[in-house]
Amino acid sequence: xxxxxxxxxxxxxxxxxxxxxxxxxxxxxxxxxxxxxxxxxxxxxxxxxxxxxxxxxxxxxxxxxxxxxxxxxxxxxxxxxxxxxxxxxxxxxxxxxxxxxxxxxxxxxxxxxxxxxxxxxxxxxxxxxxxxxxxxxxxxxxxxxxxxxxxxxxxxxxxxxxxxxxxxxxxxxxxxxxxxxxxxxxxxxxxxxxxxxxxxxxxxxxxxxxxxxxxxxxxxxxxxxxxxxxxxxxxxxxxxxxxxxxxxxxxxxxxxxxxxxxxxxxxxxxxxxxxxxxxxxxxxxxxxxxxxxxxxxxxxxxxxxxxxxxxxxxxxxxxxxxxxxxxxxxxxxxxxxxxxxxxxxxxxxxxxxxxxxxxxxxxxxxxxxxxxxxxxxxxxxxxxxxxxxxxxxxxxxxxxxxxxxxxxxxxxxxxxxxxxxxxxxxxxxxxxxxxxxxxxxxxxxxxxxxxxxxxxxxxxxxxxxxxxxxxxxxxxxxxxxxxxxxxxxxxxxxxxxxxxxxxxxxxxxxxxxxxxxxxxxxxxxxxxxxxxxxxxxxxxxxxxxxxxxxxxxxxxxxxxxxxxxxxxxxxxxxxxxxxxxxxxxxxxxxxxx
Length: 593
Known about the structure:
Elements: H1 2-13, H2 17-37, H3 46-49, E1 51-59, H4 68-84, E2 91-95, E3 99-105, H5 110-116, E4 123-133, H6 164-174, E5 180-181, E6 187-188, H7 212-215, H8 222-231, H9 237-242, E7 253-259, E8 262-268, E9 273-274, E10 278-285, E11 293-299, H10 301-314, E12 324-328, E13 331-334, E14 337-338, E15 346-353, H11 355-367, E16 373-382, H12 385-413, H13 417-442, H14 448-477, H15 482-514, H16 518-548, H17 552-555, H18 565-568
Parallel strand pairs: 7-13
Antiparallel strand pairs: 1-3, 1-16, 2-3, 4-8, 4-9, 4-12, 5-14, 6-15, 7-8, 10-11, 11-15, 12-13
């Protein structure tokens, strides 16, 4: 039974080329993937690439207090928002009791992340009571030129489109499809076929005047709201900043909205549906129509019932009271009209969206509203100059450390240092390729702590080689020749290497879990290089040592090979098992032997 086992072992030992070929194939495949991905260098973090640092100060909302729980929730949501936009290594962390620091490195979608990182993303669906184009104070009111006391809908063209009444008849009577279409940005039931927005005409484009009390949707003072609506000038940033920002969901309010560069002001009733009742939102492109980019929303069960109720009520009213405003953080992003109840729990926001706008809106709706409002305190541009200097200093330190390791290996292990340096080179190549591919794959970005982790890994990798080399030397000291010494030393060295790397990987994993920000970069790199150390030792170092053991320079124990039996203190004969000498043991006669 023992002979076949030795035969299989010998057969396995005689084919180290398979493992070396496997490593070569892996390097070629990773290199090909790197070129196909279009990224030839690792993505850099804010300390190396530069970027933007934003300081946000929390403000207590109605019913929300500034406390640790709300601040932690806000940090988590902001992190998911910027990561959802594909921003590499965006760092979000609290500072003090009411400040949040957001560091966004340069890269894809970094501008969009900066715009929405502090956006509260509170979404409400409110009935429209009044709506007209906003004009500066003292200008003629747009309502003076239209019937019913208000302006036509944005984008209206009296000479080219049927009136609102005619459009409602032609669409509503010919198809039972529930539709809600907005000026410029239509909102339609995602399961139904949409219809175009009704444009203004001399006979039907004017919006009749209405008061909050008349529509039964206002709990605030009607006269005060009407006064606010009359005084509101949405062309002024100061007015837009105040309009509708602090309104409670159950109160009527005023708000501003922009379509095709023009500002409009709205008088809105209490919220019928809350944005928290949007279960899922995603940006999609309409390939079968001309709607372009859309945001598809799926409501919760409760939200679907509320949405069906409010659209059913609005469908029975006349314009503008058959419209509802989609209000995001106090701004009307769309005000569609309703022909009949929209059931099914799904709806679309569509219109003149660009891809980035649709994805940004869907991202905010998907990840939820912030529990607090935030005011932008400062925005600082971070240059890569300081990080570049630190990186240069770190690379110089790493080069010095690597040179010292190489000198030590050459002086102490001599010829074996070739194996160590080749293994270090393979490990470095694999580390670089994987870090480059992880950039587009999981948004991994290389920062200064990550560079430190890679430098520390040099010692971990070199330690594995030293363990194996010393085991081989121990076998030679016991009187074995190189080839059997290489194979017998491997099981003992393998156990030690695995235990050592497991401890290092465990420490890196714990550090990654319990820390935040840049320290995670150090932990991630340390864990990655530890795993690669095991791969390199098993699939490159050991097979290469097996191949070199067959070469005369190493097999004969040349004094520069690092495996000279005399310098290691080995006792001849190297290939015989030692027998205990008798009391009168003397020289063995060759003939008797």
